[in-house]
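Recap from last week: sequence in, structure out.
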Amino acid sequence: MPDRVVTRFAPSPTGFLHIGGARTALFNWLYAKANGGKMLLRVEDTDRKRSTDEATDAIFDGLKWLGIDWDGDALSQFSRAAHHRDIALQLLKSGEAYYCYSSTDELEQLRKEAREQSAPMHYPWRERDPSLAPHDAKPVIRLKTPLEGSTIVNDLVQGDVSFNNKDLDDMVLLRSDGSATYMHAVVVDDHDMGITHIIRGDDHLTNAARQILLYKALGWEVPVMVHIPLIHGSDGAKLSKRHGALGVDAYRAMGFLPQAMKNYLVRLGWSHGDDEIISLEQMIEWFDIDAIGKGASQFDFKKLEYINGVYIKASDNSELLTQLLANARYLEEATHLVEPISNYHSNLLEKAIGLSKEKVKTLNELALATGFVFSQRPIKLDEKANKFLDVEARAVLAELLPYLKNITQWNAEALSEVVREYCESKELKLGKIAQPIRCAVAGTPSAPGVFEVMELFGAKETIARIADVALPD
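Predicted structure tokens:
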């Protein structure tokens, strides 16, 4: 084990930070934190046609929203292109690499023959004199892979995985235009950044074998390898958009809390006994590679919703208000609020949050559940509210108004007592009047407890709203 742990997250900026990448970043971050080390960030932007500044910014934003920070400045892989070329030329000079002038068609024919004969691929330019190269041909630089023996990936999750060298191709280090391939740049950058542990998806396991050969050719120490199983959908198939393989930004837009996302992601492939709800402090204290399973984890959207609901219920009202305001642009789009959240009276909204948070699973649901505080007189009643406010109900509300005006202490307990006494005197069931009150005050029958809503709006506003419905001009 190295003296100090240094991990890295190395996304390609070709799109948003997707859910699998977010988990990889979290595992790297937690392992570094748990061991007093550091996590570095490298943007693998050598594919200039697909890499964009917008995607890079989206990845940074996704990590920041999740609360995953990194040490130092993010490194651009493309900025190191000259160094990558120098290392490839160094391998060429030491005899560990060679110029290959074979055309695409020639290589495909050689691969076909190798498959038909169940023989290893033969690269003729390993031995061919470069002076025999075709006129004006632009060569690539390939690594000389051993033709015999095997390469073993000593992986902390997968165990020792052996690959026959004859099945590993002479990978390209430099393309014909002089640019480094992903396989070459990754090894050079990981070495130069002092990476001690490479934690990534197990779809890179074969890459690990080829990269180990490059480490050995350069005489460099191989980092500790940790290949974590991929995330599958609930049906066991590879995770796709239909399972929830969306960008982190999409989950934020759906109203998930960052702390809940971290809790859910850490349990995808890692466990600590039967613990489901795990605080950040516990994650950092408990996280260890030994607890990562070998089997693929399954993405379960309902479980994510459940965990998010637990975090919403446990959050302070003021904290949820902050989250709502921070997510305002997403929530206003998702819930079609008439008025921007940031424009409304925050004290009233915070109280409404306290009344509503027990029954919701996302911030979007919370925004909808508290949307009644955005209503203004005269209240625009929704279709369901109108059904409860028929002629008979409006007459009952008109009779109730004098009782409400005589209340000296306007709170939910006093309101409940007065309304119940009124119902008894009129031989009415509470339900006969509770829904009409709720609809008249909040504009919807789906608002929280009727007496709590009345207390929230206060005596003057509540009485005025009921009067608007019971005693229209």
